[in-house]
Amino acid sequence: PLVSMTDMLNKAVEGKYAVGQFNLNNLEFTQAILQAAEEEQSPVILGVSEGAGRYMGGFKTVVNIVKGLIEDYQITVPVAIHLDHGSSFEKCVEAIYAGFTSVMIDGSHLPLEENIALTKRVVDVAHALGISVEAELGRIGGQEDDLIVDDAEAAYAIPAECDQLVRETGVDCFAPALGSVHGPYKGEPNLGFDRMEQVQKLTGVPLVLHGGTGIPTKDIQRAISLGTAKINVNTESQMTSAATVRKVLEENPNLYDPRKYLGPARETIKETVKGKMREFGSSNKA
Ligand code: G3H
Ligand code: ZN
Prior knowledge:
The protein is of the alpha/beta class and 286 residues long. It has helices at residues 6-15, 27-40, 50-56, 59-72, 89-98, 112-128, 159-169, 193-203, 217-225, 235-251, 258-280; strands at residues 19-23, 44-49, 79-86, 102-105, 132-137, 141-144, 147-149, 173-176, 181-182, 207-209, 228-233. Bound molecules: glyceraldehyde-3-phosphate (G3H) and zinc ion.
């Protein structure tokens, strides 16, 4: 069933595991992620960036594809459709109107007071409709779609500011930027675990770790032990599926039926996602 993130994240905090947000890019990603969740009996969050939403046809199309697959695949595990890095109040409302069950409002580029005001506006509308909200403070580096943050702009969240934002907005979960990066890491990630612990203690809400691709298992486990209940992964599924398409086409230069190269790519995505669900501990937690 389609649900907000609230229940699944609260349960994850309690059970000391994290629910994966896996980003949609097209039909095959959507199929693979839903199948992975059902086979693993794991709750799942489908992340939709504004760019991916546009690519797939629009928010309504995304919701209809997801609803269609839930029915056809007889999906029984909890599924949330979540706007990833929502850029404005209007985009969040558009996603909610289209049927999303959760939104992120990313005001991380704004001064604190403006980020709080914007996030609060979104929370007021979303909560009236039973939709969960995620906010961000500090700036997560790297690139995801239109969102590009270079090294100089990337900033660690300040715990006292996180506390203020969460308290004044009432968000359901919170993403403090603590050194994680969108896309591949240059070298080993250097996550701010001390601050993560402080932020968790101060805010008391489930924490979100963006840039899940390329974080070593020991860091994933440590983050979960410090209250991280949601981990976002996109690039890794993109990379493994692209490698499969490349291999299939190289091995079969005369192949042209998209089902013959996107089908195997879909299998790769499914295996990647299942591996993450096991690593995050969300398997058999539906
Ligand atoms: O919001 C989406 C994620 O943070 C994805 O990060 O592409 O590095 O896995 P990633
Ligand atoms: Zn992100």
